Amino acid sequence: MPFQLFDYMRPDGVNDFLEWAQGLSKRQRARLDQKADMLERVGMGLLPETLTGSEEAGVLKMRLLVDKVQLRPLLCRGPADPNAEFTFLCGAFEVGDKIVPRGQEALAGKRRQEIINNPSRRVSHEQVA
Amino acid sequence: MSKLLNRLLHRFGDEEYAHAYMEGHLITRIAAQIHALRRDRGWTQQELAEKAGVAQERVSKIESGDFESLTMKTLLKFARAFDINLEIAYSTFSHGMLDVANLSADKLVVPARAEDLKRFAAMNITTSGTGQVVAFARVSDPGEVIPFSRSTVGKIVPKPVWSDFARAEVHAERRTN
Asked: Which of A42, A10, A37, A12 is nearest to A127 (CA)?
C-alpha cells in the first residue's frame, strides 16, 4: 500500500525540510530521495529498522550514511493517519552519537504537535528539483 | 508510466544523481534481503551473526541500511549462512529503475540449497527454439491419470503431461517462425 509523504511548513509558509535538503550535496540528496521514494512505496515494510526512535516521543530518525556523513532526517508517522502517512519535520545530522544541531529532536516533537493541532501546517513532500 | 519512474527518468539524466540514487537502492536491496531471509529462517540477529561469523552489531547495522560498503567476503559469508547463491551483475539503469519500482519483501526470500535442488529436480528442463536451456514447473506428473469411477471404467484418459505442453510450445514456435 503506498504511503503519503508530507513536509512540515513553518508559520511563514516556508518548507523548512526542503530548505535543509537544498543545503545537501547532490549525492546526499539523491540518497535521501531514494529513501523517501522507498518509504512512499512500501513504508517500513522492506527495512523496519531504517527508521529508529529518538529521544522525543513519536519522532523517528531516518538512518542514512552518505560519504561518511550521517544524515538523520527527523520525521513521524502520520500524524493524521499513522498507517498511511509520514511527515518530515526537520533535518539533522548525527556526529559522535549526538544529533546536531542540538535541540533538533525537541524541535521535531514540537512541530509534530503543531501539525496535530493544525493539520494545515504541512505540505506534500517536495524533492529538490 | 508510474509517477516514480517518470521522476527517475527525468532525474537520471544527471550522472552523479543517478549513480548515488542507485547506490542507495543497492544498499536498501541487500539490507532488505538479509532481513527478509533472516526472518524467513526464523533466526535472531545473533543467530545469523553466529552462522555468518560476524558481530551481531554488524548484522543490525546492515539490516538498517546504515552502511556504505560491504566486502565481497562479507556478502559471501551471508550466502554461506543462508545456504544460497550470491549473484552480482552489472545492468542498465532502466533495469535498475524497474527494480526500484517493483521491489517487495516477498521477492527477496529464496529457498536454501537443499529445498531449491529438490524443486529444481522436479522441474522440466528443456531447450528452447533459440537454444537456451529453460526450466519450468511441471503441469502434472507424467503418467498421472484422471481418477475413474464405475461410470468411467474402461475409459482411463491420461491427463496432459509436461511433454505434451513442450510439444505444443515447439509447434507454436514453428508456426510463428
From this structure: A37
